[in-house]
Write a structure and sequence with these properties.
It is built from 13 helices and eleven strands. With about 375 residues, it is an alpha+beta fold. The chain binds adenosine-5'-diphosphate (ADP), 2-acetamido-2-deoxy-1-O-phosphono-alpha-D-glucopyranose and magnesium ion (MG).
Amino acid sequence: MSEEILNSSQINEVIAAFATEGKVIDQKPYGNGHINDTFLITCQLPDEERKRYILQRMNHSIFKNPGQLMENLVNVTEYLRRVIVTQGGDPDRETLNVVKTRQGDNYYEDSRHNYWRMVLYIERTICLEQVESEKDFYDCGVAFGNFQRMLADYPSEKLYETIPNFHNTPSRFRDFQRAVQEDKMCRAAQVKEEIAFAFAREKDTSVLVDLLAEGKLPLRVTHNDTKLNNILFDQDSRKAICIIDLDTVMPGLSHYDFGDSIRTGASTGAEDEQDLSKIEMDLSMFEVFTKGFLEGCGGSLTEKEIETLPMGAKLMTYECGIRFLADYLEGDVYYKIHREHHNLDRARTQFKLVADMEAKWDQMMAIVEKYK
Ligand code: ADP
Ligand code: GN1
Ligand code: MG
């Protein structure tokens, strides 16, 4: 998505609105998120120490109500702080810490109606784009499971739905169908195979929402965007310490968090890999994450939830695929792209993963059965 390009003097003006410490000595674009514009800000303190901050322009065309989004973020992180302290953890490293504006607000609206927020940069951490070892991915499972457990008693009625129907796969399918019908960029004819792949799996889209409607799966407070680069590892201990990107914390199914992690962490290649022979769903990674996630959830998942986790992995991957393909058909208006056909490449990796999960379905089912 391409909003107005920002220049450094505009950014300096925005930084000045926040209650940072010291003198700003550097600011640069940062990270690989697909949605917000992220900057790393460095300030020099009087004693030669440095303090760093993450400044983000929230994507206002995706998050329609930045005020509600920030209220969620502040409430959830304050709640997590209290839980982390009770558990003897370090709340400055284990959750995000919002830096308010000099006026005391949670976010800043600039004169061009861009919405900005700031959090403390968590020092001595690493953010991975791809899993490097089974241990890393097991740790991710524990951390995402823990996140869900820590928020188990959070009053969900206090959470705004920042993106309605975020993981409602049938609704995502209807959006995809509309994009195919409208075919705004006249690209549908070139991607017939991918469109057919998606249409052939329409009946799967409602499996989880139907179980929820029938009362067979519980609604929980979930993160909803548990891709690998939304977790920070401690540089020294290599432990997964902090879950970030809390914009979509909303009521959801545990499958959403499980599935989106499998989609990214158990894939043998990058989300935008062009050589599809490099893309598979690694069963050992699937297993270590399952083990970690269930441990992190502290035994709270029901038998039905556990036995349907493979469907969470498949549907989150499929849903992501149809979202990328819909965006390609609509002219790349949602996700940031860095090359032509980027969204198509991303959709293809997701569909390759879905096909591989279907081929490995019995083994995936046997793994979750083992941990039930
Ligand atoms: P997006 O919604 O665009 O994905 P994120 O909030 O995930 O935005 O931030 C983008 C990237 O910035 C992350 O993947 C991570 O690398 C980095 N990042 C974000 N917040 C922090 C933080 N508090 N400390 C360190 N790195 C961070
Ligand atoms: C986006 O914000 P980021 O890059 O962590 C998207 C997710 C997708 C993901 C695909 C708010 O996540 O839903 O699964 O890209 N976030 C939003 O990589 O749409
Ligand atoms: Mg992110």
